[in-house]
């Protein structure tokens, strides 16, 4: 007690009291030092968690025109693209299970194998996603320069379309557009072409077999909201994508289309086209033999059906239809546009193999909607490639290679 301590100290000599006070000061410094060490250790551990959970997520994996693509942006996009591919894989597996054998089942299984291979190569997959994120930033920056905007109302309408909900009535198709499947209570998103995170996000319904066609149930606003909320909850749980992330994704798709429309506004809708047939062979010797058979009077369509390795055209006499030069293999186009209609080329090596090319006709023709869209997309890709090649505009950091998520993963086969 303080009073006892004071009486005890009063009985001590001056030297003893000095020693006692010194020991007390030393004891306090020891306690202070120990507490300081504990605080430093806790701070170091806390900084470790902060770096892992916060600072690392904010680190850029790339910059585009000075704008950062953060680690979180990248990781969410990778998981989202994996999720989309896995949903497609599951749908293909469901369709294949209805078929015991045959070409269709083999086609489904081949597509499933392609998806499995794509998901297993994390570095290539990550590079593809990063390229898409870079392109998205380039498109948005071009949109800003041109005063192109996307409103919240447009985003809402696009999301409704993706779920097949049309509060003002189903619109009449006006061109080659993706047709969303009817949404269900557990919609899943199909993967997109060109491995682009800004591409269409179409919730798909699971196919079911029915004996009679039931009366369609009206897709109400309440049902749409339920499906939308369920889908967003699934995305958040599986990929970490928030509703804001999803809306950003939808907006990116709209920005891409708007910028593409502006950049390709001068694309000619009438172009020089050729009507071409081809027979594709594995080697030059076989191609030469087939050309000799043609010279000897054997029928083109019979030889195409028997020998061509292009399974998509062999039974239609190798007919490729009408096409402008830009939509053909460059070598094939060079030959086709340099020959007179009715002529058959010598064997030519293209990306498909060794080909014999028959020019049926050539004329200026209006592009079909499909051709126009293909050329517009091609022009867009060319523009993006040119933008990415500009010195200093795009900077990537190797840290992305160690931050490629491998989840979600394909389901483990059972049985």
**Spatial order of the strands in the main sheet?**
6-5-8-7
Order of helical and strand elements:
HHEEHHHHEEHHEHHEHEEHE
So what's the overall shape?
A: elongated
Distance N to C terminus: 78 Å
| Tally of DSSP β-strands | 9
The secondary-structure class comes to: alpha+beta
Low-confidence stretches: 174-213
- The residue fraction in helices comes out at 40-55%
Mean pLDDT, to the nearest integer, reads: 84
* Multimeric organization: single chain
Q: DSSP helix count?
A: 12
Rg (CA only)? 33 Å
Strand content: 5-15%
Largest sheet: 4 strands, antiparallel
Task: Estimate nothing, just give the exact number of structural domains.
Answer: 2
Structural commentary:
- The protein is α+β, with helices and mostly antiparallel strands.
- It folds into two domains: 70-206 and 220-265 and 378-402, no CATH class; 271-366, Chitinase A, domain 3 (Roll), CATH 3.10.50.
- 53% of the residues lie in helices and 12% in strands.
- It is built from twelve helices and nine strands.
- Strands 6-5-8-7 form a four-stranded antiparallel beta sheet. The chain has a three-stranded antiparallel beta sheet with strand order 2-1-9. Strands 3-4 form a two-stranded antiparallel ribbon.
- The radius of gyration is 33 Å and the shape is elongated.
- The termini are far apart.
């Amino acid at each position: 007690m303080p009073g006892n301590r004071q009486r005890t100290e009063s009985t001590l000599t001056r030297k003893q009291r000095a020693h006692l006070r010194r020991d007390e000061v030393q004891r306090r410094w020891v306690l202070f030092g120990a507490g300081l060490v504990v605080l430093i250790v806790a701070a170091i551990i806390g900084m470790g968690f902060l770096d892992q959970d916060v600072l690392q997520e904010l680190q850029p994996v790339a910059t585009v025109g000075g704008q950062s693509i953060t680690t979180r942006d990248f990781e969410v996009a990778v998981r989202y693209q994996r999720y989309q591919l896995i949903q497609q894989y599951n749908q293909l597996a469901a369709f294949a299970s209805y078929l015991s054998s045959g070409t269709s089942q083999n086609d489904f299984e081949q597509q499933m194998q392609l998806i499995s291979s794509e998901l297993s190569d994390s570095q290539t997959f990550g590079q593809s996603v990063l390229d898409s994120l870079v392109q998205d930033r380039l498109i948005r920056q071009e949109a800003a320069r041109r005063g192109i905007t996307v409103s919240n109302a447009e985003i809402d309408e696009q999301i409704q379309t993706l779920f097949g909900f049309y509060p003002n009535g189903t619109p009449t198709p006006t061109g080659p557009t993706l047709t969303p499947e009817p949404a269900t209570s557990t919609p899943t998103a199909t993967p997109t072409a060109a491995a682009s995170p800004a591409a269409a996000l179409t919730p798909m319904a699971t196919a079911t077999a029915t004996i009679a066609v039931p009366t369609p149930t009206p897709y109400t606003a309440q049902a749409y909201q339920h499906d939308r909320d369920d889908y967003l909850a699934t995305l958040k749980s599986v990929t970490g994508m928030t509703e804001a992330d999803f809306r950003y994704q939808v907006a990116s798709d709209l920005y891409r289309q708007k910028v593409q429309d502006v950049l390709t506004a001068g694309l000619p809708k009438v172009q020089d086209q050729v009507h071409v047939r081809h027979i594709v062979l594995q080697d030059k010797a076989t191609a030469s033999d087939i050309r000799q058979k043609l010279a000897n009077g054997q029928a083109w369509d019979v030889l195409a059906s028997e020998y061509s390795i292009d399974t998509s055209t062999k039974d239609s006499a190798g007919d490729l239809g009408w096409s402008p030069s830009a939509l053909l293999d460059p070598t094939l186009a060079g030959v086709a546009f340099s020959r007179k209609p009715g002529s058959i080329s010598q064997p030519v090596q293209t990306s498909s193999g060794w080909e014999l090319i028959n020019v049926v006709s050539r004329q200026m023709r209006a592009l079909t909607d499909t051709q126009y869209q293909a050329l517009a997309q091609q022009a867009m890709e060319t523009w993006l490639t040119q933008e990415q090649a500009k010195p200093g505009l795009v900077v990537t950091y190797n840290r992305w290679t160690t931050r490629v998520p491998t989840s979600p993963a394909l389901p483990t086969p059972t049985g």
